[in-house]
Design a protein that fits this description.
Largest sheet: 7 strands, parallel
CATH topology of the largest domain: Rossmann fold
Distance between the termini: 54 Å
CATH class of the largest domain: Alpha Beta
Structural class: alpha/beta
Radius of gyration: 24 Å
Strand order of the largest sheet: 3-2-1-4-5-6-7
Length: about 425
């Protein structure tokens, strides 16, 4: 009997944890044993953590603790779903640690890549495998890497079907509630006036459609946080822009799958929820009222065939009758097709595992932001010290000592945080303090 394929997924925000969750649709015959490490972060929705726990083992370690965890090298592969330069930093930091056989490393994007594909990819180059949604992303990557040292970068298409087979068991359209769900995004659109206009357009559409409900599904609750930050929560935008809403227009914080499985329509500016709606048998429509604007990500949906200006729609009855399914050629180009699925990731990783692995190649200085910032590592260690997180501080300073074995202050700071006597530790920290910015 073959042993399970041990998979560690690491996420540091609700958005990245959702990307990890979307991957975990592996058939039983692959025998995948999943561990998810949700890096502690204030405001991460409890529901996201609860859902992660149902997928396998849940860890809650900081970055340094993960990198120095004694069980790290028992995994067959590690999926890194972090923000910004941390993706590159993890790969290079892991290469500093001694090991006989390292886990394979892969990474990817959470949902549709709306903007800054070049920048986002530059953090990911050099991984053993990069997950992409479909042909659109693959074509963009190939054009980007022609003639570069990364031209042979390995990729796998995992698709945009993020909800398994739920769509097949969905309620028939005519039996669904006359309900349109608007999937709010934290910064799409970013401009406060545009967001206020967006709310007014939706409220006016609700007034024109008295036999329908228009529900805004907020991206996060008021007390939660995500990677992107908005100055004003959508609940305040509603109050400030329209005051008393119509009776059939409200915010709804229930899980999006629950709302999509019972609603007839789903509207968005540019959310990946567009594809979730298809999974649950709900017809999606793209709000075209703000134009084909790359800043809002709406340009990606230009070929979908379901662009509509909601301020020009007669009412939701008319929209429901006139709205067809998205353009199948566009869907295939984006990666929404049955031929692309998460199990392809495991198959590709297993194939890579059977081939001889080459050591990490930084390949810095071309397209990659691949240089692990020693100063950033020191700043993270100092932040951990300020927070009294001694375990994390030790882990980060140990990594620093591996990077710069002759760096005296790193060695002194490490000895200080390892001191168990609180007063002596505080004295040593004062004596060894250096401003690292």
């Amino acid at each position: 009997m073959s042993s399970p394929f041990r998979l560690l997924l690491i996420g540091d925000s609700d958005s990245q944890l959702l990307a990890c969750e979307a991957l975990c649709q592996f058939p039983d015959h692959l025998k995948v044993d999943v561990t998810i490490n949700a890096i502690p972060r204030d405001g991460t929705p409890a529901t996201i953590l609860q859902r992660a726990q149902t997928l396998g083992t849940l860890w809650r370690f900081d970055m340094g603790q993960v990198l120095t965890h004694p069980d790290l090298h028992q995994f067959d592969a590690i999926g890194v779903y972090l923000t910004g330069s941390k993706i590159s930093d993890f790969r290079l930091a892991l290469s500093l640690l001694s090991r006989s056989v390292r886990p394979l490393l892969f990474c990817g994007f959470n949902g549709v890549v709306l903007e800054k594909f070049l920048e986002g990819m530059s953090w990911r180059l050099g991984y053993d495998l990069i997950c992409l949604n479909g042909p659109r992303d693959q074509d963009a990557l190939q054009q980007m890497l022609i003639g570069s040292p990364f031209a042979g970068q390995a990729t796998v298409l995992t698709g945009l079907r993020r909800n398994g087979g739920h769509g097949a068991a969905s309620i028939p359209h005519d039996n669904r509630r006359r309900q349109m769900v608007f999937a709010e995004q934290v910064v799409m659109p970013r401009d406060e006036q545009d967001r206020a206009d967006m709310v007014r357009i939706l409220a006016d559409l609700a007034r024109r459609s008295p036999n329908w409900e228009v529900l805004i599904k907020p991206r996060i609750a008021p007390d939660e946080t995500t990677f992107h930050q908005a100055e004003t929560h959508i609940s305040k935008t509603v109050l400030q822009s329209i005051g008393q809403p119509p009776s059939n227009f409200r915010l709804d914080y229930r899980p999006l799958p629950e709302l999509l499985s019972q609603s007839r329509l789903m509207a968005t500016v540019s959310s990946t929820a567009f594809f979730d709606a298809l999974d649950f048998g709900c017809k999606p429509v793209v709000m075209a009222d703000f134009g084909m604007n790359p800043a809002n990500g709406s340009h990606v949906f230009a070929g979908s065939g379901v662009w509509r200006r909601l301020d020009a729609v007669e009412d939701l009855n008319a929209l429901d009758q006139a709205l067809g399914q998205p353009n199948p050629e566009w869907l295939a180009w984006m990666g929404y097709g049955r031929e692309w699925k998460p199990e392809q990731l495991i198959v590709s990783l297993q194939q890579l595992r059977t081939t001889e692995q080459e050591p990490f190649q930084a390949k810095s200085g071309y397209l990659s932001n691949a240089n692990l910032s020693f100063n950033q590592l020191r700043r993270d260690a100092e932040r951990a010290i300020q927070e009294g997180n001694w375990t994390e501080a030790q882990s980060l300073l140990k990594l620093g000592s591996l990077m710069r074995p002759t760096h005296r202050n790193i060695a002194r700071r490490l000895r200080a945080v390892e001191q168990t006597n609180r007063l002596l530790r505080q004295l040593l920290l004062i004596l060894t303090y250096r401003d690292v910015g």
